[in-house]
Known about the structure:
Blueprint: H1 21-30, H2 35-48, H3 52-64, H4 67-70, H5 83-102, H6 107-120, H7 139-144, H8 146-151, H9 154-157, H10 164-185
Amino acid sequence: MPSIPGYRLNDPALPPSPLSDQDLADLKASLLFGEDDVAALKQAEGVVADQVEAILDVWYGFVGGTPHLLRYFSDAATGEPIGAYLDAVRKRFGQWILDTCRAEYDGAWLAWQDEIGRRHHRIGKNKTDGVTAAAHIPMRHLLALVMPISITMRPFLAKKGASQAEGDKMHAAWTKAVLLQAILWSRPYAKEGDF
């Protein structure tokens, strides 16, 4: 496990997800996410592993240049970005890129998706890093960010000589995997029985 503060994939202390393996399999089927996508993501890891910081530069440039998104990383009283918070999240976000490429889709992975969802929702926002940023990220922004995180990945996947067809497969798999996770992260936002 990486030594990243607040990073908890494979942490046995996390509560298990209430979703069953069948729930996850059904969701993956709805997304047309299959073994070919898992293989494409593993290929993508080899392409993007040494580009993580450059990818994060693009994503942080987008968030930093979008005031309504930057406020979720800014002090609620002053409106000033919280540098230490941005840095801590960046480390976890970089690991998330790699985790997305190598996900096992098991119980530990599902538990970590629940935890990530809680960290965006008012029940857990700011607690990991002890900050005073906006106390809740609306679900609309959580889901909307699937697009910039997916679209901006294409140029990075195109590096290192992948054919157009390979690049398309990796990009489609990446987009499905990001949407799958965003859907799982939205669970705390749904009333009991509605997810």
